[in-house]
Amino acid sequence: MRWLLLLCLYAGMVQAQLLPSYGDSRTATTGWQFLKVVPDARSAGMGEAFLAVADDMGSVYWNAAGLSKLDTSRWHTMLAHTAYPASINQYYGALAWRLNSNTLFAGSLQYFDAGSMPVTTEFQPAGNGMTFHPVNMALGASWSQVLTDAFSFGVTLKYVREDIADVHNQNMLFDLGFRYDIGIARTRFAVALTNFGFNTTPDGSIPVLSITDTTVIVQAEDVGVPTIFRLGFAWDALASETHQLTAAAQLNHPTDNNETYSIGLEYGWKKLLFVRSGYQFATDLAAWPSFGFGVRVPRYFGTVQLDYGFQYMNRLGTVNRIGLQLSL
């Protein structure tokens, strides 16, 4: 009960600090937007209502407290790929190591690849024959700790970097999350604060051509971080050996956009085959419900899990995700 009270107090303080008044969305006021791109296929298939569900390697991104729900294997790993239109891709990898029954450590790498782009100028709007390759990367280290049978927390420290032409920006951010198993009707809730840190100033130069000479712009304003406060709830409606059904709901409040809501379902058959669906509300991106499926295969060396997630978004079109997890 003491941990539950602390969790509620934490959630209230975070809400007071991060949630602006309604009508003040602060859209496009932060950088590091690639950090919002969900990497794992399982959560995407559930409409990104995954915070309180997270119990696999996707927890590294969503809520490191969920790593405590991994099976007793010593090593766990995940590789994931997200394919956007226009040859834009995101690659994600994570590795977790169980120190003991209560403590796990993990490392992760998130890389967003927008491909090569032509360099354009005022006098050469179609390109001057040169190209540049933007780099968006996050390198993280996570710690998950079980405090009681019902309560666990997780912390992630991330080094993030963005390079665009001759300008780069880097920062240190952290995530903090809690998970609490209520113990009534197989329900649980989770709270997470992600991408929390200080503003930073980009370094580098931008040449601007004019008729008389070339001016190099070196001044830049501080770039804010896309901090997100999330609150999730999950309920295992079915939990037999043959049938499993989990329903989830989630509140998302970013500091640079409007509040959104997500709901999701996951049905499992004998803990081997899984079908998922979900929907995001109050957002202009999600056009259709999301869908996904998964296959989990126990092997003599551990467990292999393959997941696929499908989303169709306004202005972006079809987004496909695939993920592979392995426990040893």
Describe what you observe in this structure.
The chain is mostly beta strands and 328 residues long. The chain has a domain of 223 residues. A 14-stranded antiparallel beta barrel has the order 1-2-3-6-7-8-9-13-14-15-16-17-18-19. A hairpin with a 4-residue loop joins strand 11 and strand 12. The protein is elongated and about 75 Å long.
Q: What is the residue-averaged pLDDT?
A: 88
State the order of secondary-structure elements, H for helix, E for strand.
Answer: HHHEEEEEEEEEEEEEEEEEEE
* Major sheet: 14 strands, antiparallel, barrel
- Number of DSSP strand runs: 19
Number of helices: 3
Descriptive keywords:
mainly beta, 8% helix, 3 helices, 328 residues, single chain, 14-stranded antiparallel beta barrel
Brief characterization of the structure:
With 328 residues, this protein is mainly beta.
Task: Tell me the layout of helices and strands.
Elements: H1 2-18, H2 41-45, H3 59-62, E1 75-84, E2 88-98, E3 103-113, E4 117-118, E5 131-132, E6 135-146, E7 151-164, E8 167-181, E9 187-196, E10 203-204, E11 206-209, E12 214-217, E13 228-239, E14 243-254, E15 260-269, E16 273-281, E17 290-299, E18 302-313, E19 317-327
Antiparallel strand pairs: 1-2, 1-19, 2-3, 3-6, 4-5, 6-7, 7-8, 8-9, 8-10, 9-13, 11-12, 13-14, 14-15, 15-16, 16-17, 17-18, 18-19
